[in-house]
Description:
Layout: E1 11-12, E2 24-26, E3 36-40, H1 42-47, H2 55-62, E4 76-78, E5 82-84, E6 87-89, E7 99-104, E8 110-116, E9 131-132, H3 133-148, E10 155-166, E11 175-184, H4 190-198, H5 202-216, H6 225-250, E12 252-253, E13 275-276, H7 300-315, H8 321-328, H9 331-347, H10 354-371, H11 375-381, H12 389-393, H13 398-402, H14 407-415, H15 421-425, H16 440-453, H17 457-473
Helix pairs in contact: 3-17, 4-7, 6-7, 6-8, 6-9, 7-8, 9-10
Amino acid sequence: MHCMPVSARYRPDPLFAKLGPEFADPVAPARFPQHVLRWRNQRWAERVGLGELSASEWEAHFARFEPLPDNMSAPLAMRYHGHQFRTYNPDIGDGRGFLFAQLRDGDDRLLDLATKGSGQTPYSRFGDGRLTLKGGVREVLAAEMLEALGVYTSKPFSLFETGEALTRGDEPSPTRSSVLVRLGHSHIRFGSFQRLAFLERPDLIQVLVEHCCAAYYPQHLNLSGEARVAALFGEAVEANARLAGGWMAAGFVHGVLNTDNLNICGESFDYGPWRFVSVSDPTFTAAYFDETGLYAFGRQPEAVSWALAQLGGALSLVCPPALLETQLKRFAHGYQVGLRDGVFGRLNLVEGALDADMAFLSDLFGWLTETRAGWDQFFFDWYCGAASAERAAASPQAQLYADAAFTPIRAAMETRTGSNGAAFLRHPYFQRAAPVTMLIDEVEGLWAPIAERDDWSLFEAKLRDVALMRDAFGPS
């Protein structure tokens, strides 16, 4: 039974379903023996007009997947291909998730509600279509931390424990199960276009281009033909370049930067074997199966650029390569801007000329790598630049800051320090003795009491700490 819209802010707009049967398959959600709510993102629910749903309504829509009012009548498993560790795979698609609803937020962005762990689809192959509870917990933690750090990320919207015992080879089995709903800007992946190129369907590529421009980049609807295709690609290049810079500033390693895990809007999503770095180490990997370090921390910009080139290859069926190559050249500038925005946001510094700021960042990353200074500790110690000199002098790694090698870094921060640092530093977050971090040992430490005695207190406390940090850095 459908609930009535509970807020004027609820603005359904199921555009993707209008594309027709060539792009997705209707599927039925799994039926779960239990629905135990473990996470409800009330902050974002309110922003999309769903904050007033009762507990029973929330369960109906986000555990049993009854359609939201005036929205999609049936879930859709999206069709796509992708390069996985640079090997093309035509046998993938939404194997344990689906698009469930689309709606607008207060900024008029079209957002998706999509699932992970909601059951089998035509693309499940030999999988059970399920998500472990630990996997759901890890996704909530990753996305909340990234949002707090200013990275453009999908939002964990809802997590229910579902009462099934799952067998997994990479963790103790049987293990508990969950279903996750995430709120994201788009689930149209690079691989969505690659599939149509593989099938030699330039007509459908053009349809998808028109949809993406209308849904995400309407400023280019005044263009036509090849110019519109090139403009869409340029937006994807710019957005994903900035995302790569944001990951580097956050010290985040996604782990699996396949072309089916990157989307047209440059939004980070789908968190599997992710890690945050403890120190600057360009060779640090997140996935145990990334044996060559293809997606190591320092290689992420290269990986995203390569993936964008594959998207360009697919679009070359409807646009001359020369126009696409011109747009791909936007990557370097977009990455630099994303990196500077991310680092300067974490340090609350004032931007100057991009070339000079990039020289400073090159020196900073070199120093962090050489000294193996604590990554999060450094950004915590020097928030607001010179205004934090006294705080930094009391840091556990103050000796590193007293070394001559740090002098040019400190001088560069001083020239970029704003005038209102004292006001920012009065926030309770900066009165803490240590920064909020999300290292793998901590994540395992949060999971252990859940697994052993269903104790969620450490998980909940960590999310409160992350929220405090998010508040200190300002609204996202």
